[in-house]
């Protein structure tokens, strides 16, 4: 087949004329031969109820999804390749752009891998600042997911409340990172800016404030019968399916498996804080919803403990690496818990100016992979609910 | 049948609960800021990292501390800096292409003389891409001229570099 008519698909013409050239490579090869009564629906890449530029090809039987398949690659930016052509320091700003909702976890994964490889030690105050930043960032990510998810389901108001909270978190994080999106305050051997008194004061005010608001969220959304009917029993994902696709994070925890990198393989100072791992009461979309809301509270309690424990001291190790710093030869691997699951970085260096290979493992990619199986046989509107409950960030999936 | 009616009543009830909550928050004070009638508080802007600028000289605020060593040019991952050396050590031209800048701070952190800093400009808007190529030497002259001459550079030596220059915070461009 030659000639790619990108973007145009007319399902009816495919039905009437199976040999037609309508559609592009994916939609033409999606259906091997036309089945009467079935249509192919192209969700995305700019569909408002998919997140970012995700494209999902669905074969519909009436309103039921007979088969569906995500098509990726609309936001591929070669982050892994860029890691190979830039010095580790110069690659740092990229990490905030892989997952723009939880950038600090990606920072931590890459910086942690490089520190492991070079054997750098990070001062304790920097470790605690990293933890506080990362957890607040996780709260911000979950809040935005919460608003966007409810908006997918048709409720517009909650996202406005979620943004109000998120802006407050951004005000706090801006003090230590200098930006409100694509943050990057991690440096090899420390962090780039210290938290001042205003930083700690704002956090102390924010924690009780958000706890109050979470009660309002419960009344406004969680207890809402209409929302529950759209979520309860929709898209059950069990531990077995998670393991087959490598899904991690809240999805795995909602399925009932208490796996969390922060406790299984503690990094930074996570072994010095005490927190429970929430697992879902049910493994459907509503369970995943509940797990994330509980995780917000967990993160708040971690930040509270960190505020008590943070010591005074330097935030950067002595003789910290400069921009032209070369990684020593060897390889290292670092896994951290992001808002969407396990983020891993595998770093290989041959001792040259730039790393030999930077492999980034995005949790969103594995989480999206199970969507095809989870959505099979559901109503299209429920498939959207399942898609939303996976909390996808497409820049991260495509990298 | 009865079940369906009961379900609808429950749905209606939770709708009312939601409406009462949104109604309550509708009457609470507005959180957003109406630009340009209002601007963001300077306190918040102080930690914001905007486009980079040259720091004012210690003796003469219009004099840059840059010694044209090209360290920042090499460090920049976006290749957005170009420093042309003049007859002396001081640069003849200092160009900065903000459209490629990712505000990473590599240049600020490598500069051996502390000649660079982040500004706090959030209202930088241009109509063309070319206008984003900023001449930082001219910008430095402009900022130095704003400061009254009689006044010595306030606490320039005492203040840590993160404390912003008062006149540049949050000003609409
Ligand atoms: S902040 Fe980063 S990208 Fe911007 S000019 Fe400096 S080194 Fe280049
Ligand atoms: S690193 Fe500093 S001194 Fe060297 S060229 Fe850049 S601004 Fe000038």
The overall pLDDT of chain B, averaged over residues, is 77
Q: Give the mean pLDDT of chain A.
A: 83
CATH topology of the largest domain in chain A: Cytochrome-c3 Hydrogenase, chain B
Helix content of chain B: 25-40%
Strand order of the largest sheet of chain B: 2-3-5
The CATH superfamily of the largest domain in chain A is Cytochrome-c3 Hydrogenase, chain B
CATH architecture of the largest domain in chain A: Orthogonal Bundle
The portion of residues forming beta strands of chain B comes to 5-15%
Features:
heterodimer; A: 399 residues; mainly alpha; Cytochrome-c3 Hydrogenase, chain B; 3-stranded antiparallel beta sheet; 17 helices; globular; B: 173 residues; alpha+beta; Alpha-Beta Plaits; two-stranded antiparallel sheet; 5 helices; 5 strands; 29% helix; binds iron/sulfur cluster
Walk me through this protein's architecture.
The complex is a heterodimer of chains A (399) and B (173). Chain A starts with 10 loop residues before the first helix and ends with a helix. In chain A, helix 4 packs antiparallel against helix 5, helix 5 (103-118) runs antiparallel to helix 6 (124-152) and helix 6 packs antiparallel against helix 7. With 399 residues, chain A is mainly α. Chain A is globular. Chain A has helices at residues 11-16, 25-30, 79-85, 88-98, 103-118, 124-152, 157-177, 197-222, 225-231, 239-245, 250-254, 261-264, 285-309, 363-369, 371-375, 380-389, 394-398; strands at residues 38-43, 55-61, 64-71, 186-187, 190-191, 330-337, 342-349, 357-361. Chain A has two domains: 4-71, no CATH class; 79-361, Cytochrome-c3 Hydrogenase, chain B (Orthogonal Bundle), CATH 1.10.645.10. Chain A has 17 helices and eight strands. In chain A, strand 7 and strand 8 form a beta hairpin. Chain B has 173 residues and is an alpha+beta fold. Chain B has a domain at 42-146: Alpha-Beta Plaits (2-Layer Sandwich). Chain B has five helices and five strands, in the order ααβαββαββα. Chain B has helices at residues 2-26, 42-45, 71-75, 106-110, 136-146, and strands spanning 52-54, 81-85, 91-97, 116-118, 133-135. In chain B, strands 2-3-5 form a three-stranded antiparallel β-sheet. Chain A binds chain B through residues 86, 89-93, 157, 161, 164, 167, 171, 174-175, 178-180, 182, 184, 192-193, 198, 216, 219-221, 223-226, 229, 322-324, and chain B through 7, 10-11, 13-15, 17-18, 21-22, 25, 31, 43-44, 47-49, 74-75, 77, 102-106, 109-110, 118, 162. The complex binds iron/sulfur cluster (SF4) (2 copies). One iron/sulfur cluster binds at residues 66-72, 83, 110-111, 113, 115-116 of chain B. The site of one iron/sulfur cluster (SF4) has 13 residues of chain B, from helix 3.
